[in-house]
Each structure stands twice: as structure tokens, then as C-alpha cells.
Amino acid sequence: MKPLIAITVTLGIAATAIYIWSKRASPEVDVGASGERSEQVLIDDRGSVSKKHPLTGDTGVARGDMNASHDYREAYAKSRDLWTFAHELLPAAKTGHADAQFYLSTAMDHCASDNKMFFERKGATLSLEDGLQYAALRHLSLDLAQWVYDRCHKFLERDAPELGSAQDWLAKATDSGYPPAQSTTAEKMLSRDLLNNMATASGVPVPDPAPVLQSNLSPRQLLKTALTSGDPQVLFDIGDSYALLNPTASAEAETTERYAWWLVACQRGLDCGANADWIKPTCSINPQCGSYSDPTDYLRSLAGDQWPDVQQRAIEISQKLDGHQWSDLGLGL
Q1: pLDDT, tens digit, 9 for 90 and up, residues 235-291
Q2: CA distances (Å), 151 to each of 78, 82, 83, 105, in order?
Q3: Contact in structure between 170 and 184 (CB atoms under 8 Å)
Q4: Where do the structural domains in the chain lie, given as residue ranges?
Q5: Smallest Cα–Cα separation from 257: which of 296, 311, 219, 297?
Q6: Under 8 Å CB-to-CB from 10, ≥6 apart: which residues?
Q7: Can you give the pTM of this predicted structure?
Q8: 90 near 162, Cβ under 8 Å?
Q9: pLDDT of 23-46, one tens digit each?
Q10: Which of 33, 143, 195, 305 has the maximal Cβ count within 10 Å?
Q11: Distance, CA of 317 to CA of 268 (rounded, Å)
């Protein structure tokens, strides 16, 4: 490979890594036609928590809707105040509930990323008015900026040493074997390693190095372990990680694999509607998203001419998942 081509490919992968690292896709529940059934499986298998740790308060989930088994994934998706949400998860996280630890970490990490995008500039915290003006200058969605402010601004206005570190909570959830935490950690480790390798090769330091992530397992081992759970967020993360796992793959192969894994994740319970965190930023500037009647519509628009290949690959992935053929999925896991 010629040097210029190699550099171009590497920079493309790095851009993917930086995006993944700074803007993690957020796990939510499916709101499609089959969402209720798929989510119930997740609640039974992965999301159950003790009644003594119900969520209360201003999270968008009414007290009367709580029962003996509550799913933090759904509560996170519905919350419009992640500061309150984080504090309500804290007792369960401290007592060792891995799902609470993961979604506490997710809320903190999500708000840190989004606040930095809209309401932090040159070390200063912006007001809502200034943040909206800053978004307008960069041609970003004002509706999205308002949404970020509503969910996350309290993290900028108040100190919360009691919440601890998002990284530490993620590590605890990962060590406990919670599949979405394992795949999240693996993706962050792959991104970190890529950026560190590029910095070493170029002699240019990473401007904003991520915190050190540690695990007894390698990223590939974490992904393989998480994959066996069949959790839709894990499937989405594997699609997100494909370029990092296969840096020499062609652009066409990367596109097909990424969207095929995302499609399988949507089919198996991930929220792929217009209000999902990973889609909402795009839909805020593309009103057509709101008219999509099927979770596959958005992916179809992304895949373009490769949509038939994506559909076929998704069928193959589903068949191998159902057959527990983990080593035949082409991931090197």
C-alpha cells in the first residue's frame, strides 16, 4: 500500500474511533412493533433489579409504573433529567447491581460528551442562550441543543463527587460480566489503542487522551463473551467496532458489516426509532426521519445501494447467532 493511501485509510479509521469514543451510542428500548416482546426478554434475562431500588422522581417514569422488576435500560431511554436519574441509580450501583452501574456510567459519560459539544467552550460553561447561539454558529440543531440542556445541564451547574467516576462504574459493571458494559469497554479499548498507535507512529500526541481502561480480558475476548448474551446493544457495538477489529477491510465491507449488525440489533430489540439517542442527532437536521414507519428505514437510507447486501448479511448473522456459531461470524473473536 502506498504511503498516502495508507495514511488516508488510517485517518479514516481514526475518525471513526474518535467519533465512537466521544459519542457513544446510548442503549434504549425498542419502540417498534416487536419492541415490547423483545424488551420483556431482556428484562427477564438481564435487566431485573430488586424492588428496594426503584427509580423515582423526575425521570419521565411515573412512580405508579414501577414494579418489583424494573429495567434500567428503559428508564434511561425515558429520562429527561439524567442528573436525577444518576442519583437514583447510585444506591443500586453501590450495592453491586451491574446494570445500575452501567447506566450510571452511561448517563455521566453521555452528558459529559453532549455538554462538551454544546455548552462548554474554551473552558467556560455556557448558558442556554449562549449555547444555542454557539450551536447556531456551527449550524447545529437548536432542538438538539435544547434537548441536551434539559437532560444534562445540571452536571455543569453542580458538583457531584458522590457519583464517583463514570470510568470506575463502567469497570465495575464490566468486571461483573454485564454484556453491554463488556462491549462498551472493548470498543473504548480498541479506540484508545488505535489513537495511541497513531500518535506513536506520527509523533503527535493525542490532543485529549482518554482515561486508562483496564480489563483482565482483551477487547476481542470481551466482545466474544458479551456476544454470547445476544443483547441487542452488544450487537450494535460490534457493528460499531467492525472497522476497529478489521482495519484493513474495504469501505464496502465495513459499510455492509456495520449496518448488518445494526439491523440485527434493531430486529432484536434495540430502539431504532427517530427518537433513539444514536439516531436523534441526524433526525434533528433531517425531518424525514420522523416519517420513518419501520426501524429499518433509517438503516436503508444509510446503506443506499448496499442495502440488499446488508439485508443478506443480517440474515447470515442471525442464523449464526441462533446456532451459537460465534467463531463463524468473521470477527476474529
Answers
A1: 999 999 999 998 889 999 999 999 999 999 999 998 887 778 888 776 766 666 666
A2: 11, 5, 7, 15
A3: yes
A4: 1-46+217-323, 51-177
A5: 311
A6: 198, 247
A7: 0.75
A8: yes
A9: 443 333 332 333 333 332 222 333
A10: 195
A11: 12
